[in-house]
Design goal:
By secondary structure, the protein is mainly β. It contains 1 helix and 7 strands, in the order E-E-E-E-E-H-E-E. Strands 1, 2, 5, 6 and 7 form a 5-stranded mixed β-sheet that branches. Strands 3-4 form a two-stranded antiparallel ribbon.
Length: 98
């Protein structure tokens, strides 16, 4: 069985910054910086998974356009996306999430 995952680089057009998340002790590769990533659920497309992860991890529910590019990271069937937002996203961190 191939593990499927998707990740998104979230880029602010006004500041030129990319959002990175610091991974908790409770997840794989703890205490490292990461883009917004997650496993693709059964019946879900890579793009749907990427959008769901943005919603879950940032509590960001606005419609967002994703632009696909590929990346080979070995153990996963992985699709990468970049998304552009005008301003940096202000969000409350949910410490119960991994």
């Amino acid at each position: 069985m191939t593990n499927k995952a998707a990740g998104t680089y979230l880029f602010s057009k006004n500041t030129g910054k990319i959002l990175l998340l610091f991974r908790s002790e409770a997840c794989s590769d703890p205490n490292t910086w990461s883009i917004i990533t997650g496993i693709v659920d059964e019946g879900e497309s890579f793009e749907e998974a990427a959008k769901r992860e943005i919603q879950e991890e940032l509590n960001y529910s606005e419609d967002i356009n994703l632009y696909k590019f590929t990346e080979d990271i070995g153990k996963y069937d992985f699709e990468s996306y970049i998304a552009f937002v005008d301003d940096e996203i202000n969000f409350d961190i949910d410490l119960s999430e991994n």
